[in-house]
Amino acid sequence: MVFLSPDRSGAALLMRFARRRYAPNRADIVALLLIAAGAVLIVHGADQMGRTLPQLQAAPIVLDLARLPGYALLTTLRMFAAIIASLLFTFVVATLAAKSKKAEIIIIPALDILQSVPVLGFLTFTLTFFMGLLPGREWGVELASIFMIFTSQAWNMAFSFYQSLRTLPEDLVEVSQQFHLSPWQRFTRLELPFAIPSLVWNTMMSMSGGWFFVVASEALTVGRTTFMLPGVGSWLAVAIERQDLRSIGWAVLAMGVVIVLYDQLLFRPIVAWADKFRFEQTASQEEPRSWFFDVLRRARLLARLTRPIGHALRSAPPLPVVRLPAPPPLDPRVSRGLDWMWVGVVVLALAWAVITVWRYVAVSISLSEAEMAFGFGLLTLFRVLVLIALASLVWVPIGVWIGLRPAWAERIQPIAQFLAAFPANVLFPFAVMLIVAWRLNPDVWLSPLMILGTQWYILFNVIAGASALPNDLKEVASIFHLRSWQWWRDVVLPGIFPYYITGALTASGGSWNASIVAEVVTWGHTTLHATGLGSFIADATARGDYPRVALGISVMSFFVITLNRSLWRPLYGYANRRLRMA
Amino acid sequence: MTLAVERPADIALVEVRGVQHVYGKGGGSGLLVLDNVDLTLRPNEIVGLLGRSGSGKSTLLRSIAGLLKPTAGTVSVKDMPGDDTAHGVSMVFQSFALFPWLTVLGNVELGLEAQGVHPEERRKRSLAAIDLIGLDGFENAYPKELSGGMRQRVGLARALVVQPSVLLMDEPFSALDVLTAETLRTDLLDLWCEGRMPIRSILIVTHNIEEAVLMCDRILVFSSNPGRVIAEIKVDLPQPRKRLDPAFRALVDDIYARMTARTTPQAGNRDGLFPGTGIGMALAHISTNTLAGMMEALAGAPNNGKAELPALASELQLEADELLPIAETLQLMRFAEIEGRMIRLTAAGKRYVNAEVDERKQLFAQNLLAYVPLASHIRRVLDDRASHQAPARRFRDELEDFMSEDYAEETVSAVVDWGRYAEIFAFHEDMDQFSLDDPA
């Protein structure tokens, strides 16, 4: 009993090879040029970053238009370094959490808290740490900046990967077990592919948030020392100091171009490619498209050149699989006992950490100061809530209007996503100029800056929600002539609610973080101050006053976590339970 | 059924001895899914495991595939002595279980890749398997581009390409429409009879009686409280078998009777067909509309209050395992009685059929409280409490002492549905809470 004559399939194979052509085509030229240019730029940028600190300080930022593309490149490279670090972190930590119950007990709550902590506040600590690690080299400052961006990106990516690993389809897991896939094969064939769609989306969201931090973390001032890493953020800082409006305009343009390029050349292709990993087994009606992805796919020579790599990877001898003998099954009671002991160890470690921090802070901070910081927190909380409410009042109707008109939605959705990615801090100087010129009250008028960059999350989520309203519901609404308030209350608001909550949650988290740079802004020698927790942290950072920075961060984390637990989380749960379209 | 060289028939490819499987909380008094099952699979035969959903047949199959470890008993898989082409077992899944991100070829190659087969060899063998199973031309398609039938062909090719000596099939055709299922079944039987597959025997799980009789040389019928082999039937009809052949029909009817027959036909033990007793009884979530529809069908012409189950099943176009839980739910609530192959409406059932909406609800409420212990238990708890409220979590926890989480979930949702219809209590999904308040 053998399979059918092997000759026939052998011949079919030959035919298939013969039909393929390997001559380069036009798509090849485009693809190769772009890829080569990318490689040159990366090498050039990395070379720049390796300089020593004296060199860095000897060559200050020059507001020369010819240098701007180079600065934009360095800013972009920092961003990508951070995203690669975030991906590595995600694979290691999320896998650990999904596979080991003991690791899960620590990792999941830690991720949950870390993603609510205002990363901008950490600047002082990370800079000191990395400078100590790599004394005298620019790399130390670079790493501090990259680490900052990393801390704004990694957590939600890790969460998404963890969730995917926990929800692997049961039947595919059984197939992998049945064929005895090695852990590595299981990862590349099952776990990673299944996680990709959600991971790509989360990486994209992280990138959007990251531009804000890359700009904020390039010009670092700690105590009396100022470091200016070559990049758009530093360009901006210098331009603000010199009140050079034209240079600020150029920075805005440069950021815009960079974001469009990264979107077109990197993310759209990846999203288009990731579409094949979606788990539904039905063909999707609307496939994400990307011209660059099409070019890459059509590039014949490129495919020919890269095939040996793929081939080598596939045919590499399988890594020797070390199968450890399974530990003898424990009595369930013993195993539960061990779990509890582990929890005990974790709790003790936490208690020790809290006491250490407390001692450190308590030495230099009085209770009244802590109360004051708490009061500032309330002020900033008030700002965040009012701003979210205002932004919702504006963007929900507009988003619904757009979402119900597919032709508009298709055109506006990318713009909204672009605006969400655009680092709003680049635009702050314009606002400051207006406030100074019209002598407005900074306590009120600096507030909108906090939501300048994050309001777009509300807009594009609402657009997505309104576009996803099922057609039959819309038809029912029009048959029964549902009008005005009833139409909003019974059809639209419940329909978009889950999407709106996602947007508002993101916007709220982003606004807290933004408050650290938005409550204190400078324009030349004018510094505007809004009273709040953000300015408290920013001032303490500028003074190099570590205990107060720590206090500020703790209070802000407390506020963010409380707000998430008591408002956003319940609303999110409600939306998912009751209002998801089945 | 191969006409190849006679092989010693006393070799066991798969040997299952005294397998027992218990679901539920840590080893204690869980739900017994499989009890003391023996099975021997010999070369050159197709054996069917036939039973209702929840009779543990899939559990048994997964134990043989090495995916589950039985609570007690042994499973051993052997290769034919001197056979160097076929090894071990391989499985075809009801849901196809294809990797959506791999092409047809990629899916088929998966098992060989795990074995570390050289890429060229891997490709050659996979293309041969794809050819064999009739997927030629679809090598580069992704599963989402294929119809259900084509997807299951991929599942079959993937299982065959690793050259197992035993092919395990878990309801392989039940996710397909009738026509597609028939085509696939015929193709598989052709390949088997012509000896073109490398496998030595097939073990197939099904709940479809006709399918079992069409394909198998031997059928093991499972009871479902708990899963036990209650009958072993040899099918000697020559292939290809015809559905309209009187011998075929007689065999189907016979198996039907065995599946519906109560193991202990004592009066008063009417609850016995559902696993568990008292409030720990695992109920099937059958809609009240379905129950009413079944009673009306029984009362109407030509049945006039009683019918043979196989005839009723074909009249209502239901599979045995769809019809039986409905019949047994009616029996549990004393709206009908099952005796052998017959089902008969009781006096209460007849009254129900002739009543108007409100009276129907009252009758339903009476019998629900009297004969479904969980329903009366919930009602009693609600009556006792001053607030007249109780969280559903509490009852689910109680049930999980007797059964798995999924069964507890289904049982509670069945009682919620019936209780709402009978208006004996209210249930609030947002709060996951039972109460006595009238929603009026």
Describe this structure as you would to a colleague.
The complex is a heterodimer of chains A (582) and B (440). By secondary structure, chain A is mainly alpha-helical. In chain A, helix 4 (68-99) packs antiparallel against helix 5 (101-114). Chain A starts with 5 loop residues before the first helix and ends with a helix. Chain A has two domains: 21-281, MetI-like (MetI-like fold); 339-582, MetI-like (MetI-like fold, Orthogonal Bundle). Helix content of chain A is 76%, strand content 3%. The longest helix of chain A has 37 residues, at 367-403. In chain A, the strands form two sheets. Chain A has a two-stranded antiparallel ribbon with strand order 1-2. In chain A, strands 3-4 form a two-stranded antiparallel sheet. Chain B has 440 residues and is α/β, with parallel strands linked by helices. Chain B has helices at residues 57-64, 104-115, 119-132, 148-161, 178-193, 209-215, 246-260, 288-299, 309-316, 320-332, 347-354, 357-371, 373-384, 392-400, 405-422; strands at residues 14-23, 31-41, 46-50, 72-77, 89-92, 166-170, 201-206, 218-224, 227-234, 306-308, 336-339, 342-345, 389-391, 426-428, 433-435. Chain B has a six-stranded mixed β-sheet, with helices on both faces. Chain B has a three-stranded antiparallel β-sheet with strand order 2-1-4, covered by helices on one side. Chain B has a three-stranded antiparallel β-sheet with strand order 10-12-11. In chain B, a hairpin with a 2-residue loop joins strand 11 (336-339) and strand 12 (342-345). Chain B is globular, with a radius of gyration of 24 Å. Chains A and B meet through helix 1, helix 8, helix 9, helix 13 and helix 24 of A and helix 2 and helix 3 of B.
